[in-house]
Amino acid sequence: MDSPVFNYINSLSPIRPVRSIPNPNQFSSLNFTSPPSVFTSPHLTSSHKESRFFKTHNSSSSDPTNSVESQEDESTSHEEVPAEGEDTKGLNIDDCMREEASVETNLDDSVASPCGGNTTDLSLVPYAPTRGEDGSCEDNGMELQKMHDNVQGKTETPDWESLIADASELLIFDSPDASEAFRCFMMQRASNSEARFRNGVEKQTMQHDSNKEPESANAIPYEAVSLLHRGIRRRCLDFEMPGNKQTSSENNTAACESSSRCVVPSIGLHLNAILMSSKDCKTNVTQDYSCSANIQVGLQRSISTLQDSLDQTENEIREDADQDVPVEPALQELNLSSPKKKRVKLDSGEGESCKRCNCKKSKCLKLYCECFAAGVYCIEPCSCIDCFNKPIHEDVVLATRKQIESRNPLAFAPKVIRNSDSVQETGDDASKTPASARHKRGCNCKKSNCLKKYCECYQGGVGCSINCRCEGCKNAFGRKDGSSIDMEAEQEEENETSEKSRTAKSQQNTEVLMRKDMSSALPTTPTPIYRPELVQLPFSSSKNRMPPPQSLLGGGSSSGIFNSQYLRKPDISLSQSRIEKSFETVAVDGAEQMPEILIHSPIPNIKSVSPNGKRVSPPHMESSSSGSILGRRNGGRKLILQSIPSFPSLTPQH
DNA sequence: GAGTTTGAAACT
DNA sequence: CAGTTTCAAACTC
A24 CA, B4 C1': separation in Å? Predict the structure, then answer.
């Protein structure tokens, strides 16, 4: 509450905070103060995945067993409750909308409450809420929400651009969570929008339309942006995918390494939002929103309103970045909405956003299951059989999860570790590659040459590293042997020239070219999912992954898609037991862009593979000078293992 | 859409 | 911990 940001924000608004009045029909503040996280294990690269679990904001309360039910119960008390048949109904957008509406109300009511407690001193502490991954959304979102609400209450046409600009200038998203938080703010704004949507969105849109004329892209109606973000939320959980963080915006390029702390310039925020929305909406909103017709209605107009400016902006950016930068095949397949793809994983990747598993025998209780592995419940789009990965089987899920984690504490951590240019292990040739991330464990490919998505490294949009045990690695993102992309042509000659390899080569060359072209403007690893040259993760981290985005899609993916999947409730005991293990790698581009952050992580390295290439146990805690090692400058970048609150306090913080 | 290939995960 | 099996995604046809 004493933070400069708060002071500043307060100074911006003439409206004084009002104490919340408990409303039994709404989620209590408490419910939102302890965001749940299925991922009790560390999220190495991002928190984007957590977005998928927005649904369970209220599930973080002490009783994990009734969260879903309570939500559903609550949802039934709302108007326009759609018919929902199965236990995954909570995943429906409508439900989420209602939930968000509740959140919004709650936020509005509790302007002066809890969130402030966690956002201590932003100037000194990484803007990572202490409540946990989702908590960041609440914390940051609430404050920003206040800003919005204050303005909203006073003005007919809130100056969101300036507000956001102010906020983004003040907030240093030093962590993926923070990034997520800001995005969540946008999402909450979206929820706000939706709350009003049925009543007056048309009116507002028209207002904006008339107002935005001279302002071009920056003047995009906030409602529209919010709605678009809703779309992102649904479909783009994984913002942090390898490489998706790039745009032509130099400022952002420099500042925003995925999952890294990120000073988000106001303009960047807008562009990012727009671009993300644009890109995503083009493929996702229009294609994948069948489940959210009510939203789609609003989106259509909003998007159409935006589209012109978006296209213009996009074109400009594209031109700036590079004339004719070839789009990576993987990206193409995602962004061009290839109709041929049987299963285009718009959100695939570590970040994995919208997982849709197809498990038949694993009951979705093993890591085979992408949903389970991603820490989310299976949802309707899944084609799984005998699925136990549903809220109604929470106990089983948690037990299984615990068991798996006992075997491998990082089993649920993002597979792609985002870091700076260099990998920690000295002598890692792979660190010389442009890839800015590595698979935490490395792949073991034998036949795919690490050129197909069978390869987790490739899938994660990262190069192979010394950790990999792959054979004949030709990973376009960086070879295991450390050969640079530039060397690939030569090595290709040296290598076998079988028909197979030739085929691979053509693909490789394409990617190599792309990388070369992009390397100047886009220093980070390209992601198969997002077009780096167009989309810069606003504040992201993950998936996760994404190519595949995981990482933005987060690796971890995540990135991205705000799927309506539930966030599994936290395994408290497990989480607590691993608090110290929670960490994430943060790439810092230039320390001048952000203040030093404290390094708490006891884990010096994330290597989970022995030098001999054999798979070994995941990293365990080691007391060492990890911080100094990781935090040391390296080519102008710093790799920081930043501890993250693995589990939020269950008590409201004031 | 069915069948095959692939490599991670799980098991022994 | 190496080898094998199981599994589901990725891929091909």
Answer: 56
